[in-house]
Design a protein that fits this description.
Helix content is about 40%, strand content about 20%. With about 325 residues, it is of the alpha/beta class. The chain folds into two domains: about 5-220, Spore Coat Polysaccharide Biosynthesis Protein SpsA, Chain A; about 230-335, no CATH class. It is globular and about 55 Å long. The N and C termini lie far apart (about 40 Å).
Length: about 325
């Protein structure tokens, strides 16, 4: 059986560790459990040392966010499979066995996501990943079980082990060999959409990303940065643009970016109409950083980009105009 490391990134999260670490240690007998700490100023590291001596602690020297925080921590982790798990995740009994089996039986698969349900409403999918992610032609992410703000009830409609385009960073399994070949997460992103960028790069390297419904976890979501926080808006819009510059096919890069920038403007106007002015300014700030580092990210492009990266021509059009709010079979066939 392949060795597996469950690695939880922490920053001032003692309360979350108290609440959710017990399920991880109880239901992960196959794994070595690590807490990678981003220089917390609370006593979360001391809490783990005293109460969970079997958990290994990796101490980073600063708060490096999700991307660099994991990159630094995983330099010290040698298990064959990495399970990157948010500190606000409750795992279930037997959650690792089907993941390990899928890795062992499908050698082309490098990344796997479990079924992610809402900790606060356990019969529904959770926003950050649900039953596996895709993007549209213009880089907007969506999931089976969650399109924009419409979240589906889990009725077994996605009980499969299908190929997906991206796996959620809330609970992200990846082979160590693939992670290191790809160079890990892009540290310029800090946090948000770095997992989509990594999956897109994996796709361009002919790695497969899969969803495994028989592994189930519950995610709180927004425990570190709420969706109401303009900084989250800034990171999502900025990082999405950077990701597209890195990964879009060469002949399509600038035409698609032009449309995407226009659609971002429409989103900004919607924030103004809703009176959410800090979010409007967050989009403006994201575009400023996009232009500032455009040539820098053009130089980070890899030699090969595939054209068939997207599942929908425009999820914005499908959702807001055609009423395609649920990723069911009919909607899937229209993508």
């Amino acid at each position: 059986m392949k060795s597996i490391a469950v690695v939880i990134l922490n920053w001032n999260g003692k309360g979350l560790l108290e609440q959710f670490l017990p399920s991880v240690t109880q239901y992960s007998p196959e794994a070595t459990v690590y807490v990678a700490d981003n220089a917390s100023t609370d006593d979360s590291v001391a809490f783990v040392r005293v109460n969970y001596p079997e958990v290994r602690i990796i101490q980073n020297t600063g708060n490096f966010g999700y991307a660099k925080g994991y990159n630094l921590a995983l330099e010290n982790v040698e298990e064959e499979i990495y399970a990157l798990v948010n500190s606000d995740v409750e795992v279930t009994e037997g959650w690792l066995a089907p993941i390990i089996e899928l890795f062992e039986t499908d050698t082309d698969t490098a990344i796997i996501q479990p079924k992610i349900l809402d900790y606060k409403n356990k019969s529904y999918f959770e926003y950050a990943g649900a039953a596996g992610g895709f993007i549209d032609k213009y880089g907007f992410p969506f999931c089976r079980g969650r399109i924009f703000e419409t979240i589906e009830e889990d009725k077994g409609q996605y009980d499969d082990a299908t190929e997906i385009f991206w796996a959620s960073g809330a609970c992200f399994f990846i082979r160590k060999e693939a992670y290191r070949t790809l160079g890990g997460f892009d540290e310029d992103f800090f946090a948000h959409q770095e997992e989509i960028d990594l999956c897109w790069r994996a796709f361009n390297h002919n790695y497969r990303t899969r969803y495994c419904h028989s592994s189930v976890i519950y995610h709180v979501g927004g425990a570190t940065l709420s969706s109401n926080n303009p900084r989250k808006t800034f990171l999502n819009f900025r990082n999405s643009l950077w990701m597209m510059v890195k990964n879009l096919p060469a002949g399509k890069l600038f035409p698609i970016l032009f449309v995407r920038l226009f659609l971002d403007g429409v989103a900004g106007m919607r924030f103004i109409m809703l009176g959410r002015f800090p979010h409007f300014f967050a989009i403006l700030k994201a575009h400023f950083y996009f232009y500032l580092k455009l040539f820098y990210f053009l130089n980070k492009r890899e030699p090969k980009q595939y054209k068939n990266y997207y599942k929908s021509n425009s999820i914005v059009w499908d959702y807001f105009t055609k009423g395609g709010k649920v990723f069911d079979k009919n909607f899937n066939n229209s993508l």
